[in-house]
What does this fold into?
Amino acid sequence: MKLLIKIGGTLLDAPATRDSLARQIAAAAGLNHQVVVVHGGGKQITRFLDERGIPSRFVNGLRVTGPETMDAVVKVLAGTVNKQLAAALSEAGALPVGLCGLDAGLVQAEELSPELGAVGRVTGSNPALLHLLLKHGYLPVVACIGGNREGRLFNINADQMAAACARAFGADLLLFLTDVGGVLDATGQTIPRLAPTAARELVTSGVAHGGMQAKLEAAASAVHGGVGQVRIVLGAAESVVLKAVAGEAIGTALEAEPHPLEAK
It folds into this structure.
């Protein structure tokens, strides 16, 4: 199985959770699955900025990223958070390689909006480096920073980064490890399965908003791009990675809508 795991920064901020996930990811790689990890780190970036008296400002959920903030993004995401996760994976027996989207053109981006500064919109992804590393038994660990051919760095939404890498990598499963147990309906119940059309309806109706809206939009783009299944699960749950890999019905699964002929 080709497996791409996206881990939110909140999960990585707790050493016990980070170590548990690292052990599970290493175990999945040890089962001959091809595993790529993409991670965020928004909580850690905010703390880093607060400690230096730099205010964090958001527009529609996206961090306004001026020069000082972009410097913090690089130091925290590609530095501390990436290397802490790589260290945990190494201790668990994997062979992690820390990367960001700029490396070998893994994720190309362009400026999303002048008012947001160095916030990027993904324009393409080249999986050649991922394939090369996986062929030799390494485990890519990708921080959500992209770039362009002029060498400019961009702060990329981690969900969109994961979806772009999953599409290019040809993932069978894109696993979003989050701080919620799945996608909730209007009554607060977890929805076990969703098609992209139903996911769009949740967003349009306002039932899914904020971070979940971003995840559903990224998930839908991954499915449309050929990813077999996207699953949104509670990252702190026991053995969550191994259960997902084993095909257990946890969290919310998003899959392509069946062809009309297949539905008959």
